Amino acid sequence: MTRLPRTERPPVGRQPVVRGTGGSGVPGGLRGSIAVAASLIGLAVVAAVTMVVGSGDLPFSPGSGGGPNASGAGPIQTVSPSNVVVVPSGVPGVTVPGSLVYAKDGNVWLQSKGVATQLTNAGTDSMPTFAPDGVSVYFVRTRPMRGLWGGVNYLLDVPSLMRVPVAGGDPVKVVDGLVDPAGSQRWSAFIREPAVSPDGKTVAVATDLPDPTRSDVVIKLITLATGKITSLGMVEVPPLGHQDPAWRPDGQVLLYVLNNRDGAKGVPVIMSYSLATRKAKSVTGPGYIHPSWSPDGKYIAATRTSAFGTDVVILSATTGAEVAQLSDDGSSWAPAWSPAGNQIAFLHGEGQVVDLQMVQISGPAGAWTVSPVINLTSAAGLDSISRPDWFVPADQMPPPTPAPATPTPAATAAPVATPSPS
Do residues 175 and 158 touch, judged by C-beta distance below 8 A? Predict the structure, then answer.
């Protein structure tokens, strides 16, 4: 469909952050992400139901507890200062390999070896994700500008895809969301949820670039070497679009969420797109978002949405069936599967505060034993719409499981000569 910018359109690309409570008693990140989602969909009723969940927000009022096993609102937590992330003491016998990346108060943070380090300080950064080599992090940064449409000025936030070295340094702009054609018009596109391909050459994003008047916000590919934007032509339900791209570890399949609706009810579905056949198919029924692949590509961690809230589950990548449930509190979402294979981190909301938690899984695949929840941050106030990401270097990966030994065939005995009758 063709979608024209509107002067009343909320600032484009503003990535909200959780800053505690405001006058409404709702976390700032939750209020802001609802505004972004409503702009993305353009249908207020559907936005409130579908994309509030789709953007990672909790589909229940803060402090309600949400899920069937919730214990009530509990004490109100005090969020740590914007320049502090408290990492609890480790659990004996549990090692968290590699590094996790997430966002807080508009800045990108890295967590490794029990220490959280602030990587950016612009105050408008969100949705970080690792490059496949772990050397750099891609994220979305916004800047304020004056928009112009039909001779009318308005304020907008312009998103850009950025890259910053993990070792520190100045971020570099990769793609700009400003749309400034010749004439009397200036506005911006959406750039959301970057996911870098395993070969490091391509970024999948939810965007309406290069021309938002001719595209909804759908999953497209950006070639990093040239900046070329490729539309995959995947099915959509206008104007709801797509979200949550996730590459299979071999780079041949891209998961994403197709946003749909049933009346006023949001019914998101995880889809699978094959780069070889250029065809997409559904993986799940309605109600699943935030896919994250297992290292072997056989399973998918995802957020299940329901009337009770959001919980983290593991699905079969072949059938879409649930094979494990990792949370049952109705307030957990956005899983990130460790490349090491035996741990899954996810966001969790307690009252109005978002933290990072983790579980360990052990035993045969598909019949795992799930550990109790381990807190990776404490009263951090993380960004509710920025999914965490995980990188583990090769020297911290577990040794590969040896292939079962192949039985050696028994030697064939030489035939015994039978004496001929005399």
Answer: no
